[in-house]
Amino acid sequence: MSKTRVLTGITTSGTPHLGNYVGAIRPALASAQRPDVENFYFLADLHALVKCGDPARVQRSTLEIAATWLACGLDVGKNWFYRQSDIPEIPELTWFLTCVAGKGLLNRAHAYKAAVDKNRADGVDDDAGIHAGLFMYPVLMAADILIFNAHKVPVGRDQVQHIEMARDFGQRFNHLYGEHFTLPEAVIDENVATLPGLDGRKMSKSYDNTIPLFAPRAELKKLIAGILTDSRAPGEPKDSDGSAVFQLYQAFASREETAAFAQAFADGIGWGEAKQTLFERIDAEVAPLRENYNSLMAKPAEIEAILRDGAVRLRQAHATPTLARLREAVGLRDLSSVAVAAGDRIAKPAASQVPTFKQYREADGKFYFKLVQGERVMLQSIGFDSPRDAGARVAAIKHGEVGDAGSDFRLGDGVTADEVNAALEAFVAAQLDDKS
Ligand code: TRP
Fold first, then answer.
1. Measured distance CA(282)–CA(269) in Å, rounded
2. Which of 208, 254, 291, 427 is the most buried (most CB within 10 A)?
3. Which CA distances in Å does 434 have to 340, 351, 371, 431?
4. Distance (Å) from CA 11 to ligand 1 centroid
5. Domains of the chain by range and CATH?
């Protein structure tokens, strides 16, 4: 059974906060338990350069996010865990995709468009202060996803457009160069909460309203005490609906605990007490992870080694062979494989030497095909039950899906595999010539 490949990336430009944990890390690790899924978890450090020009911060964030995944229980023996910049095939693929990506489509990417709109509002040049990294961000992200043929990409709503773009670039590439890429799907988990931050807006680094996931206990308590509430006094019934304290609690508590907390709100629990309850609940889940985190952060060399090892294995298993195929597909090829005539153009066989496919029926009632070049039989099929089956196989071979000799064809007597490949190339070249 082939597994569903699920890919999760986090940009390494900040300190992990409760919103990252609830929205991305916790659900992603729940999926790590499923036997039918192959997981890819990575640190998008090349993406960090788009937003963050502070080298120390990028390094620090990379360490913190790596330690967070590990502290939360990511099993690096069973899942792929790596740093984007350790896989040079990703930026290489980014260029291939750049050359099929529609510029008009990139113009419409939300983040870039928002930057342009702001410039217009400020009355400056459209592209003032915008670097090409922001513009190309979706192409790099498409490479992250397409290189491993991920089926599913769990993301927040703000990232859905990027997945659509990855599909678009993948499709264009497939159309031009053959079926190389699986088209990914965005997965938005409706059950995963969007956490409010200290001010009640969505918890986000850009609003500066986050609660760091592994803040020490005392700091966690202090931050929670600072969450914005209304001014109702103890004893007054409180609205659980719009309350950040309540929503945060809900993200960590069981159904029963949440129901009890809602009741306490209706009964007029004081904000101080509600926040204390929230603090204890979050700390109960986070404290053991915090302990793991602190001991991992004390051993950065071990984290470095884990990441490097993950990248080495992943390159070997997937990235390097995939890029070898893609290079071949786009024409970045070994020159010694070119069949050249004495002159400076690609050899064009005499008409009688142009290879052709012949389909026919034998006395056994079965349908066969062969590839003949001049007098020579280059390739001979087995018998197929229907002419359609034989025809479909010929069509596949014409499209480059030759397969191995001995499967459903054999090589002609005294013919080598290289000669068959050369014949097939000549066949394709002749067809192209006919069309031009
Ligand atoms: N752009 C994503 C974010 O900011 C991070 C990311 C980079 C990513 N490459 C990815 C997410 C590939 C999923 C798949 O959240």
1. 18
2. 427
3. 20, 12, 19, 5
4. 6
5. 4-194+300-328 (3.40.50.620), 214-233+242-297 (1.10.240.10), 356-435 (3.30.160.160)
Distance CA(249)–CA(241), nearest Å, equals: 12
Both tokens assigned to 193: 């909460």
Sign of the alpha-carbon dihedral angle for 401, 404, 405, 407: negative
Q: How many residues are there in the chain?
A: 436
Strand pairing of 4-11 and 37-44?
parallel
Ligand 1 centre distance from Cα of residue 160 (Å): 10
Q: Is the beta carbon of 28 within 6 A of some atom in ligand 1?
A: no
Q: Is residue 144 in contact with ligand 1, taking CB distance under 6 Å?
A: yes
Across the chain, which has 436 residues, the per-10-residue mean pLDDT values are: 91 95 92 89 97 94 98 96 98 98 96 95 95 97 98 92 98 96 93 87 92 97 96 94 94 95 96 97 98 98 98 98 97 86 57 82 92 90 92 87 85 87 84 65
Q: How far is the CA of 8 from the centre of ligand 1 (A)?
A: 7
d(CA 311, CA 59): 17
* CA of residue 52 to ligand 1 center, whole Å: 15
Using CB atoms within 10 A of its CB, is residue 14 exposed (0-12), middle (13-18) or buried (19+)? buried
- Our answer on whether the CB atom of 161 is closer than 6 Å to any ligand 1 atom is no
Gap between the Cα atoms of 210 and 195, Å rounded: 10
Helix/strand/coil for 264: helix
Q: Is the CB of 47 under 6 A from ligand 1?
A: yes
Whether residue 7 has its Cβ less than 6 Å from ligand 1 = yes
Residue given tokens 């020159």 in the structure block: 335
Distance from chain centroid for Cα 407: 34
Which pLDDT does position 271 carry in this prediction? 96
Ligand 1 pocket residue status of 141, Cβ below 6 Å: yes
Instruction: Give the separation between CA 214 and CA 229, rounded to whole angstroms.
Output: 23
Q: Give me the phi and psi of 11, to 5 degrees please.
A: -70, 135
Asked if residues 12 and 44 have their Cβ atoms less than 8 Å apart, the reply is yes
| Distance in angstroms (rounded) separating the CA atoms of residues 8 and 310 | 15
- Cβ(97) to ligand 1 under 6 A? no
Place of tokens 């160069």: 177
Concatenating the DSSP letter of every residue in 57-95 gives HHHHHHHHHHHHHHHTT--TTTSEEEEGGG-THHHHHHH
pLDDT at 400: 80
Say if CB 169 and CB 97 are below 8 A apart: yes
